[in-house]
Amino acid sequence: MKFKTSWKNQLWPLRVMRFWLGVTWIYAGWDKASDPGFLTSGSTTFIGTQLSAYAQNSPIDFLLNKSLEHATQIGIFVMLAEFAIGFATLIWIAPTWAAFGGFAMSITLWLASSWNVQPYFFASDLAYAVLWLSYFLFLFGSRRKSNLAIDRRGFIRISSVAALAIAGAGIGKLFPKEKKAAVAAGPIKIIKVSDFAIGKTHNFTSKSGTPAVLFKTKTGVYAYSAVCTHEGCTVAYNSASKNLQCGCHGAVFDPENGGKALTGPTNKPLPKVKVAVEGAWIVEA
Questions:
Q1: Which of 1, 56, 201, 273 has the fewest CB atoms within 10 Å distance of its CB?
Q2: 37 φ, ψ to 5°?
Q3: d(CA 213, CA 216)
Q4: Domain 188-284 = CATH 1.10.10.60
Q5: Is-above-0.70 flag for pTM?
């Protein structure tokens, strides 16, 4: 049986690497599958919300912004891919290409979410990319033929990985994890009052790491999340219409009426962000 012989024939260092990578990727898929908010628009853990936050400081922001239009589909793909790569690695089905898939995912995550981590060795995505690349190069250099032979046995083996990935995602939905209570934090400075004129808007990143937009009127200040409640794209203020508009699917929100959705494929208002004036600064409370 290839599963048993594959473990038996590998050196212990490779067994440790293989076990760690396979289990970690399965857990990553499970973490997403068991998160009720991962595919729920408007949730703080929604994949679209995460992509919006990543795009603020990522060198591939142009790709992330384009992907927001299909955030839910991308979330499903990533979740199933993590399950598939993890299972394929552990049970030795197309292990070389599973390792390459793990490397590609790690590099993408590094560029998207942990590019600015300093010093660089604190970025776990980069460390995983090196592990997957090392494992891939070893397997690629030592293989005699492709593990993706298109025959009856090969088809069944590949199909079994897909079935395990789908099953893992389905079981994860049956056991949703509990939401963690938000950690209290003190006020965060956004902009000086003297630098922010009445009638203007100011884009900033909220405590949750998502984009937000600040407004100032004669009566005070208020702010909303800039993450569209449809598919997680980032909304922008249109000074002509005085509305917040989503460039992906055309949703329009009224900032003067509680962020209410006026038109578009959603009827959910934009979430409010608590802000206040403290001394010389406007802060997020």
A1: 1
A2: -95, -10
A3: 10
A4: no
A5: yes
